[in-house]
Design brief:
Helices cover about 75% and strands about 0% of the residues. It contains 27 helices and no strands. It is globular and about 70 Å long. The two termini are about 30 Å apart.
Length: about 525
């Protein structure tokens, strides 16, 4: 079965490697680099990319760390874990659209201030598509803090971490001391790869950058995307060279951060042994407020999408629309919704057996290979997929598009399942084998049914990842298949907010429905297994 495990992963990953080479080969010429260095756009694009990416990564880590250190362990941490799927279910593009409805010069925030100050026209604020990408940084920080909290839930759920907290508190150390002296020195190295994934996503994000990022020049990822889509071979070679710059912007800061961490650990003093039970009530209060703010902002984002999709006449500075109407929903095109549903379901149904076979029979030492798409900028991978599909004559086909989604769906599903898989009681499999079951039948009738809840969660996560894919859909689909994500980004450049709100809300509705269905299925599957909880 190990052969099938390797074959399944190779089916997803192997064609990408030559594709990346074919895509980057034009950028290795000297003419491409000279043209890139002579361009007036790319230095400003690099500046906006670095500002938005560094700020978003730093603030996402600070928010996730503040929330975790003030609520773990405790009931608030458990409640946060139950609600975290609400943050994860909102796709990035839809979140960017909803946030733009809130902070735009004619958005809800300006309308609320207008009621207090008496404005009659929208203020001359540059709150969206600012030249430094600050609005993009805020949106990325809020979204990626949810991903880091999800990662912290997996790490802090380990028994050894909880045991260390209990022992340290019993020895007289306060919560803040335990986090500072014991937990954070262990957690930060383990957060290295998730932080690299957050940083890589910020570097290569295109859909959110088109909606919230600067316009002229745009971020580096958007600029590269435009160059690669141009018919001119000259601009395409410049785009290939700029991809190398994009990868270097990931490797160099990651290496510097790793060297800085080693220096800090080498020079950090050993604990003095002094106990302090006193905490900072103000800091704890701010952390609770921050936790609530994440859900409140997400609620307002989704609420703004719903309200704009139903709005009739709505002129500034009125806080609510003059009338509600279903005209936007009647005129909406539901083909992207059906395409997204179809591709998401197919990607999950293909990725789940590959993930299970890999976790059961695959070589565990190569798990890092599966996580590579999460820590490498998505743009070179999407371009590599397109080059491979061109050579296989599968570009612009539904099969090629589903295969393109698997490169990101599979790693997230493995990441979701690997914790429960490691925590599974192997004595159940040993007993099944002793009763005459083969390893495959023991998995089919014992192990995988017992892991029904993690499997349903993995399906929900994988479906959400598929729905959110923008670059793979554009490149692999060849523009022939519109999804709710590509449609929302395309409509963001227009002026009809109502149609844009409809498509963005449909993008939110799909993952939310799947997460709700997974939650109901988890309760139904566990009603006869209460003793295993």
């Amino acid at each position: 079965m190990s052969v099938f495990a390797i074959a399944g992963v190779a089916f997803v990953f192997a064609p990408v490697l030559p594709g990346v080479y074919w895509a980057l080969r034009p950028g290795f010429s000297g003419e491409a680099w000279l043209a890139l260095l002579a361009s007036n756009e790319w230095p400003q694009a690099v500046r906006a990319t670095l500002v938005s990416t560094i700020l978003s990564t730093a603030f996402a880590l600070l928010m996730a760390g503040a929330i975790a250190s003030s609520t773990f362990p405790g009931r608030a941490w458990t409640v946060l874990g139950r609600r975290l799927s609400l943050l994860l279910a909102v796709p990035h593009a839809a979140f960017a659209v909803g946030l733009s409805f809130l902070i735009a010069p004619s958005g809800w925030l300006a309308r609320l201030i207008a009621q207090l100050i008496g404005w009659t026209t929208p203020p001359a604020w540059v709150t969206v598509q600012d030249p430094y990408g600050l609005a993009l940084a805020v949106a990325l920080a809020i979204k990626e803090s949810g991903f880091l909290l999800w990662t912290l839930f997996a790490i802090l759920g380990e028994r050894e971490i909880a045991r260390q907290m209990t022992v340290a508190r019993s020895l007289g150390y306060g919560r803040a001391q335990v986090w500072r002296l014991i937990l954070w020195p262990q957690l930060l190295p383990r957060l290295g790869w998730p932080l690299a994934a957050v940083f890589a996503y910020g570097l290569s994000v295109v859909d959110m950058a088109v909606i919230l990022g600067p316009g002229t020049p745009p971020t580096l990822a958007v600029l590269v995307w435009r160059w690669l889509n141009d018919a001119s071979p000259h601009l395409q070679s410049m785009g290939s060279a700029a991809i190398v710059v994009l990868v270097a912007l990931l490797v160099v800061p990651a290496y510097c951060a790793r060297a800085a961490w080693r220096l800090v650990r080498r020079r950090s003093a050993l604990p003095s042994g002094r106990r302090s039970l006193s905490g900072s009530p103000a800091l704890a209060c701010r952390s609770v407020w921050l936790q609530r703010s994440l859900f409140v902002i997400t609620g307002f984002v989704v609420g703004s999408l719903v309200l704009w999709s139903l709005a009739g006449a709505w002129f500034f500075p009125t806080l609510l629309p003059d009338a509600l109407s279903l005209d936007a929903w009647r005129r909406a095109d539901f083909a992207p919704f059906l395409n997204s549903l179809q591709f998401g379901v197919l990607a999950c149904l293909i990725a789940l057996p590959i993930a299970l076979v890999w976790l059961e029979w695959g070589p565990a030492r190569f798990n890092a290979v599966l996580y590579a798409p999460l820590i490498v900028p998505a743009l070179p991978l999407a371009v590599g997929q397109y080059s491979a599909l061109l050579h296989l004559n599968l570009d612009g086909t539904a099969a090629g598009l589903v295969w393109a989604h698997l490169l990101w769906v599979l790693p997230y599903m493995v990441l979701t399942l690997i914790g429960p898989y490691r925590a599974f009681d192997v004595r159940l499999i040993t007993t099944a084998r002793a009763l005459g079951h083969t390893r495959l039948s023991a998995c089919l009738f014992v192990k995988w049914p017992t892991l029904a809840k993690p499997l349903l969660a993995a399906l929900a996560i994988g479906f959400s990842v598929s729905i959110a894919q923008y670059l793979p859909t554009l490149f692999a689909g060849g523009g022939r298949f519109a999804t709710v994500t590509t449609e929302a980004v395309a409509l963001s450049a227009g002026g009809n907010r109502r149609i844009l709100a409809v498509q963005s809300f449909l993008q939110v509705l799909l993952p939310l429905a799947v997460f709700a269905l997974a939650g109901v299925s988890q309760q139904w599957s566990g009603r006869h297994r209460r003793g295993l909880r």
